[in-house]
Amino acid sequence: MKHILHLISSIQGKESYSIKLGHAIIEKIQEKYPGTTLEELNLVDIQIPHLNPAVLRTFFIPKEQLSEEEKESIRFSDQAVKQLLAADIIVIGAPLYNFTIHSSLKAWIDHITRAGITFGYGENGPVGKVTGKKVYVAMSSGGIFSEGHNKDNDFVVPYLKAFLGFLGMTDLTAFRAEGLKVPEVKEHAMEKAINSIYID
Ligand SMILES: Cc1cc2nc3c(=O)[nH]c(=O)nc-3n(C[C@H](O)[C@H](O)[C@H](O)COP(=O)(O)O)c2cc1C
Fold it and tell me: What family is this protein classified in (predicted)?
């Protein structure tokens, strides 16, 4: 039985295309793997704090030496890492805002990036420890970034692929609802995205 972690980072609630696309991906996963369980984490609703000096310092103190205050400061990070490690499949809703991912998704990434836990250092440099996961990205954007004149500004999927790969999540497939603000494209953009979904 598989377990899915669905990360939501849209600020558009019921109108969100990345949430709809994420749900369409989850539906297809559940068709393929009946009995799959789902945990949904709305990163916008929970208002993850930015990384700050105290949290960063605490990341590097051995667990048994932490004060109660320090333990509390990394409670969210510990919980987020636990949720991530418990998942077989991670579905990431990645709406494009101002050329990149929403700050809530970046904040989540900052909190799950823990030396000694989610990555380490080997003889040849950093080694990702979050292995054996499948990642699906549900990206949504007003413009078209997978091809054409905006391709040079395609930062969301390449960034997620590079960084999650650094942590060991090298098996990533992205589906895009794109051109949602392009007059001649927007009408069919969502349908096209849903039809492009395949579960491997
Ligand atoms: C604050 C904000 C910034 C945006 N910036 C961009 C942008 O830089 N490029 C673009 O193509 N679309 C941009 N859009 C359009 C979104 O990509 C589009 O609304 C998409 O549906 C967002 O995903 P969501 O529906 O899941 O929230 C922006 C939308 C908002 C609300």
Answer: Belongs to the azoreductase type 1 family.
